[in-house]
Write a structure and sequence with these properties.
This protein is α+β, with helices and mostly antiparallel strands. It contains 15 helices and 15 strands. Bound molecules: acetoacetyl-coenzyme A.
């Protein structure tokens, strides 16, 4: 069977940074610890006035194509996943293709282009579409370009303002990939939920506390569904487990829940029994409430055990290092988590070939998906090529006043013209409006 998966990854952050504990928290009259310890965030990335979902996506795709020596003829499909689209008809992929065509002087006229929407899970759904297209033998030897790009901004004063971010991840999906091979097995947890939505509005309506619970419930369902086709999961089966990361504190909760599920009826549960007892079983309780209280008590004890702490430090924590510095990138977030884990492995000389990842994606509204990936030969070279450290270090550090202005300048309901805070260099930039209300772009040398 042909191996299909991710052949290359590129990450593009917004060019601005908001320091959460040192700039945002004091202005809000909050404790810095809410960010560094509670949410697990140091900073959020923001787009400068000349950046948007198209420029960040096109810049990521351009670097990927340059690095892999590709031209438009090599790409048979461009899918953009976003929940920040500005047009209900013309997909963002056409804008990104237009940007790239200007630079390459060649066109993507024979590439199928689309836009995927299901909140943050759309990035993984686009990978899925690419995988299926190649597996079905319809790609004519060509690769698929998947771009997950978002400006995750919340209304000023909304609780979500603490978890903003902006950036894009471009991924090349091919046969015989050089980073990871994707599993055929998948699990889904999907239900009609109103936890986070944007009914024809730019900034989301969010029930923040509920969204956390919905994330965990759908993720648990997806894991059970995955196990029904792939067999039981065990904590030792996976080198890393990258989750959708709206903020690292969310993944701390998901990791604990996942670990409890995976150790059930295993020797790990037996070994921990002396220290914290066995997991509560529903049949031992008269009602759901008593059972749920017992589970919470067990989880509180579990998270303090050495076994759990060591597993978390090795398997989950490495997925969070980039997210801590950039915040939520919605569709790109789980793909940032995978890249973060692979980068950690490279920096620590971990031999990953043949090792497995378990990917937990989530989108509000709501759906979770779980699949496995196997790391393949070539991953080190691909991950070494990422320049994410340089990009993070080069961001302009916003003052609180600048943050207020840049938020206004990206607010579609405000007419705020603002000078850029950084100077664009070798990148696509927003260049004003066309005669039909379309957005125009220009590559700055
Ligand atoms: N020291 C240490 N910890 C502190 C602290 C301090 N000084 N102050 C607060 N904390 C802790 C709190 O105890 C809390 O931790 P727990 O959740 O473990 O209890 C954490 O920091 C956050 O504090 P609050 O709950 O007080 O923060 P908040 O009221 O601002 O709400 C939020 C947090 C609900 C996540 C909010 O930021 C929000 O609505 N975010 C957007 C929605 C979101 O991201 N939901 C996630 C699931 S949905 C999803 O994943 C899709 C998506 O991408 C949006």
């Amino acid at each position: 069977m042909t191996a299909v998966g991710i052949d290359a990854i590129e990450i593009r952050t917004g060019n601005l940074k908001l320091d959460l504990p040192n700039t945002f928290a004091p202005a809000k009259g909050e404790e810095p610890g809410k960010y560094t310890k509670g949410l697990g965030l140091n900073a959020s990335s923001f787009p400068d006035s000349y950046e948007d979902i198209v420029t960040m996506g096109a810049n990521a795709a351009h670097r990927l194509m340059e690095r892999k020596g590709l031209t438009p003829d090599d790409i048979g499909r461009i899918d953009v996943a976003t929940e920040s689209a500005f047009d209900n008809s013309k997909p963002v992929s056409t804008y990104i293709a237009g940007c790239l065509e200007d630079v390459y002087g060649e066109n993507f006229h024979h590439a199928n282009k689309g836009e995927r929407k299901f909140a943050c899970i759309a990035g993984t759904q686009s990978l899925d579409d690419a995988y299926n297209w190649i597996k079905a033998g319809r790609n004519r030897g060509r690769a698929a370009l998947v771009v997950a790009t978002d400006t995750a901004l919340y209304a000023r004063g909304d609780d979500g303002e603490a978890t903003q971010g902006a950036g894009a991840v471009a991924m090349l999906i091919t046969e015989d990939p050089s980073v990871v091979e994707m599993s055929t097995e998948q699990g889904y947890g999907s239900a009609d939920e109103t936890d986070f939505l944007k009914p024809n509005q730019q900034f989301p309506s969010v029930d923040g506390k509920r969204s956390v619970q919905v994330y965990l419930s759908r993720m648990r369902e997806a894991l059970e569904d995955f196990e029904s086709v792939a067999g039981d999961t065990h904590p030792d089966d996976y080198a890393y487990i990258p989750f959708h990361t709206p903020f690292p504190g969310m993944v701390r909760k998901a990791g604990l829940l996942g670990y409890r599920h995976m150790i059930r009826d295993t020797s790990v549960e037996d070994e921990l029994a002396e220290e914290i007892g066995r997991q509560p079983r529903r049949e031992a309780f008269d009602n759901d409430e008593a059972y749920e209280d017992a589970v919470l008590e067990y989880m509180d004890a579990l998270k303090e055990t050495d076994a759990y702490r060591e597993w978390y430090a090795n398997t989950i924590d490495p997925t969070l290092t980039i997210s801590r510095e950039v915040g939520n990138w919605y569709t790109g977030s789980v793909h940032v988590a995978r890249a973060s884990a692979l980068r950690h492995a490279l920096q620590n000389d971990v031999d990953l070939v043949g090792k497995r990842l378990l990917i937990g994606s989530y989108g509000s509204g709501a759906q979770a998906e779980i699949h496995a990936e196997t790391v393949v030969e070539g991953w080190e070279e691909e991950v070494r090529a990422l320049n994410v450290e340089e990009q993070l270090a080069d961001r302009h550090d916003l003052s609180y006043g600048e943050y207020e202005s840049i938020h206004d300048s990206h607010n579609h309901e405000k007419d705020t013209d603002m000078d850029a805070l950084t100077v664009p260099e070798e990148e696509f930039t927003f260049d004003g409006w066309g005669r039909m209300g379309e957005r125009k772009y220009r590559y700055v040398e």
